[in-house]
Write a structure and sequence with these properties.
By secondary structure, the protein is mainly α. A hairpin with a 7-residue loop joins β1 and β2.
């Protein structure tokens, strides 16, 4: 939940882009010096990608990595990212992360290129995963699924009439 709260906080700052990255241990940093004390399990090769720690299991890390991929997809489509941010502004009782979770649920009914990925805890592996996912959603039929899911999300939040114009443009385009 701590990671999810961090994402929610980051969205509250209204960034134009949100860049989420895996925790890397770099020699010479305080984290590197305290890696044993913090129980930072990491890959054997530089840049020493963290696999787990005292409070974040390997499974937690894999879930976080999947969530980051979904967020990257939504951020790629500016109108969709904007719809999530503006939905929160209209319905502040809904956290950004809750809106993101619901968007993921809606999309996964039709397409889910993320669940089957293998996380090798290397930059090469994660870059390959990112390429695979972004290539999938760059196909027009899959972009359409995202826009339709965003419209459904807006309807569920009761703001489709107010905030759906840019989403409708995306639907018409694809």
């Amino acid at each position: 939940e701590g990671f999810r709260k961090s994402i929610d906080f980051a969205y509250s700052l209204n960034p134009s882009k949100l860049y989420l990255s895996h925790l890397l241990l770099l020699p010479g940093t305080p984290f590197w010096d305290r890696r044993e004390e913090l129980r930072l399990d990491h890959s054997d090769e530089p840049p020493y990608m963290v696999r787990s720690n005292r409070q974040f299991t390997v499974e937690d890390m894999k879930e976080a990595m999947a969530l980051v991929l979904w967020i990257q997809v939504m951020n790629y489509f500016e109108a969709i990212k904007d719809a999530i941010v503006r939905s929160h502004e209209r319905c502040p009782q809904l956290r950004y992360i809750d809106l993101i979770d619901r968007m993921i649920e809606i999309v996964k009914v039709r397409i889910d290129p993320i669940s089957g990925l293998t996380h090798g805890f290397t930059l090469e592996s994660e870059n390959a995963n990112r390429r695979c996912v972004m290539n999938t959603f760059s196909m027009p039929e899959n972009s359409l699924i995202l826009y339709e899911a965003a419209m459904q999300l807006l309807a569920e939040c009761g703001v489709a009439c107010d905030l759906g114009e840019n989403i409708e443009v995306g639907i018409q385009y694809y």
